[in-house]
Amino acid sequence: MRKKILAANWKMNLTHSEAESYLQSFLTEIGDVNDVEVVIIPPFTAIPALASASEKIQALRIGAQNMHWEKSGAFTGEISATMLRALYVKYVVLGHSERRTLFGETDEIVNRKVRAALDAGLRPIFCVGETLRERDNNQVEQVLERQVRSGLEGVSQKDFNEIVMAYEPCWAIGTGRTATPAQAEQAHAFIRSVLSELADGATADRVRIQYGGSVKPDNAEELMRQKNIDGALVGGASLDPRNFAQIIRCAEAALAP
Ligand code: PGA
């Protein structure tokens, strides 16, 4: 069985001291977590503050929102996978639609980053998703297939075990508009079928696929009950520790028949 993975993508929010207070409220709210994995993905500046505290709950991991594909060098303003690893970072978000649309990241760049992350021992949370126009033009599968295949080019079958996928339809990010559980499930099943062509059925079955796009406490449980939805990548709602804790509870509730 795939262990569900719930991640809080803070984006460009919270200073390191705000992150410390967040963590305190979150830990009080959540108590302990056993059945799901929890990842907090703060801005780079708050990583050290969270990393030292993350030992308090076993299921808590720290993620980063981006990285450069080179190990070091003259790349002003960039951060490498090695630097993240040194701060006990386990996951890194790659291919997020904000990076693709606002910062011009292409499939090729995303692929370089995915391979560099794996080489350094980081686990990519590799995001894919269509725009509204692509959905209206019935291009969802075509877009997802292209993003998945190019993002994972050159990745060994063994490394598939280290990857978490995230299906994030662009039109649902930060808009309050969520994909219906059926729409999301259909996209997730399709992504898994592409993975099985790239690797094999058993490997594809082990890959966790998160859903992202306006996940909130009141829609999380139904989404988490879908067969191919293995967690959530939560943006806006994760900025409130109580909401994020509630979403985690929803994911745990979805484990019950
Ligand atoms: P949202 O963002 O939950 O605010 O829609 C999700 C994401 O971008 O990862």
Q: For the CA atoms, what is the radius of gyration?
A: 17 Å
Rough shape? globular
Class of secondary structure makeup:
alpha/beta
Helical content band: 40-55%
The number of helices is 11
Binned strand content: 5-15%
If you average the pLDDT, what whole number results?
95
What are the secondary-structure elements, in order, as H or E? EHEHEHEHHEHHEHHEHEH
What about the largest sheet? 8 strands, parallel, barrel
CATH topology: TIM Barrel
Strand order of the largest sheet: 1-2-3-4-5-6-7-8
CATH superfamily: Aldolase class I
What is the CATH class?
Alpha Beta
Bound molecules: 2-phosphoglycolic acid
Q: Architecture in CATH? A: Alpha-Beta Barrel
In the residues, how many domains can be counted?
1
The first-to-last residue Cα distance is 14 Å
Pick out the low-confidence regions: none
Number of strands: 8
Task: Summarize the structure in words.
With 257 residues, the chain is of the alpha/beta class. It has a single domain, classed as Aldolase class I (TIM Barrel, Alpha-Beta Barrel), CATH 3.20.20.70. It is built from eleven helices and eight strands. The protein has helices at 16-30, 47-53, 81-85, 97-102, 107-120, 132-136, 140-151, 181-198, 201-206, 217-224, 241-253, and strands spanning 5-9, 37-41, 60-64, 91-94, 123-128, 164-167, 208-212, 231-234. It has an eight-stranded parallel barrel with strand order 1-2-3-4-5-6-7-8, surrounded by six helices. Helix 3 links the parallel strand 3 (60-64) and strand 4 (91-94). The longest helix has 18 residues, at 181-198. The model has no long low-confidence stretch (mean pLDDT 95). The structure holds 2-phosphoglycolic acid. 2-phosphoglycolic acid binds at residues 9, 168, 173-174, 212-215, 233-237.
